[in-house]
C-alpha cells in the first residue's frame, strides 16, 4: 500500500496519537462517557511468536500481531505489514484508524491490522512464503471471510495475499478467495485494486482543489514515498497536468524545479532500486522534501512524518495524506493555524479499502465487475465522502481531520449503541 520507511520510535507512540485524535472527536460530538471507554480500546489483540526453519537449517522465532479495534459495523478489515520496527502500539493505532476510515466512507467493515516483525529485504522468496504461511496459520483464530479480512500493506503484496488465501483454504478444505483482498486477479482479485489508494486520493484532491480554487493544471506537487500509493499518485497527478517536482523513497528524495516524468522515474527505480540519482535532479532528504515550495504535498510513506518541528516549514497550500498517520496532532494545530488545507488520511487514502470492499463483494458473489465500473463507483463514494466531511468542517468550523473523525466516530458509536452490550 505504501513505501516502507524506518519508523523513529523515539517520536510519539502512534497509539497515543490515535487515542488523542479520537478524544478530540469524542469531545466535539459530546460522546457518551460509556461509549468513549468502549471505543477508546481495541476489542482484540493477538500476539504470536512462531518458529520458522530458515534455509540454512537454523530456526528463527518471529513475532506477529493481529489486532481488531471495533467490529460493530462489520468484519474486521486491515492490511498486514512486514517491518523490522513494527510494534503492537503501531498496529493498534492502524487498526483504530481503519475503523474510522471504513466509517467515514460508509464501508460496512470494522478496523483491524496485522504485522510481522521482520526485514523482508533480507529474506529470500522461499523464506517469506514459509513465514507468511506460518503467520497465517497462527492468526487463523481471528481471520475469515465473515470475520476479519487482511490485505497488503507495507512490504507485502498480492503474492503475500495469495499465500494467506491458499493457507486458509488448505486448512478449511475449500477455496476461500474472500478471506483476503488485494489478491492477484487470477485467483479472485479485483481490477483497479493496485491503483485504488492513489486514485481515491486524487479524487479527493480534485474536490479540494475546487473548494480552494486551485488550478491543478501546472500545480506543483511533491510526493513522499514511491511505493504503490506514491507512484500511482504521481502518475495520476501528472496525467491531470500537474507538475511533479519532488519524489522520494527509503533512500532519499529528488527535486527538479522543471518537473519530473513519473513514468521515467519509475523505470529508473526498477533498474537501480531507488529514485535517488535520477538524471537532472537535486538530492534531498525525506525531511527536506516535505519542506519544498509546492502547491500540493502528498505524504505517501508512513506515520510520524509531519510533526511540530517541520510543520512550521511546510509551504504547500494543500496536503493530501495518502499514507496512514503521517501528521501528529501538534502538527495539525500548526497547519490549521497557518491556513493549510489538509485532507486527512482516513478520508484521503480510503480508496484502497473501498476497492478492497468491492473485491470482497465480487468474491462472495462470484460475479466480477469491469475496471471502469469499479473506478466509477470509487469516484462516487470518494466524492460524496469528501463532500460530507467538508460540510461538517464548514458547519462546525473545524479542520477536515476533526470533521472526518466526528462523522466516523459518530457512525461507529451509533452502530455500537444500537447493537447494545452483550450479554
Describe the structure in your own words.
- The protein is built from 14 helices and twelve strands.
- It has 423 residues and is of the alpha/beta class.
- 52% of the residues are buried.
- α1 (14-28) runs parallel beside α3 (88-104) and α6 packs across α13 (371-396).
- The strands form two sheets. The chain has a seven-stranded mixed sheet with strand order 9-8-7-6-10-11-12. Strands 1-2-4-3-5 form a five-stranded mixed sheet.
- The protein has two domains: 42-187, Rossmann fold, CATH 3.40.50.10860; 196-348, 3-Layer(aba) Sandwich (Rossmann fold), CATH 3.40.50.
- It is globular.
- Helix content is 44%, strand content 17%.
- It has helices at residues 14-28, 33-39, 88-104, 125-138, 158-172, 196-212, 228-239, 262-272, 286-290, 329-337, 345-348, 351-365, 371-396, 400-419; strands at 44-53, 59-70, 76-82, 110-116, 148-152, 220-224, 243-249, 252-255, 282-284, 296-299, 318-320, 341-343.
Nearest-integer average pLDDT: 95
Helix segment tally: 14
- Beta fraction of the residues? 15-25%
Helix content: 40-55%
Largest beta sheet: what is the strand line-up? Answer: 9-8-7-6-10-11-12
Q: Poorly predicted ranges (pLDDT <50, ≥5 residues)?
A: 1-10
Order of helices and strands: HHEEEHEHEHHEHEEHEHEEHEHHHH
Shape: globular
Query: What is the domain tally?
Result: 2
**Rg, nearest Å:** 20 Å
Q: Characteristics of this structure?
A:
Rossmann fold; 14 helices; five-stranded mixed sheet; 12 strands; disordered N terminus; 2 domains; 423 residues; globular; seven-stranded mixed sheet; alpha/beta
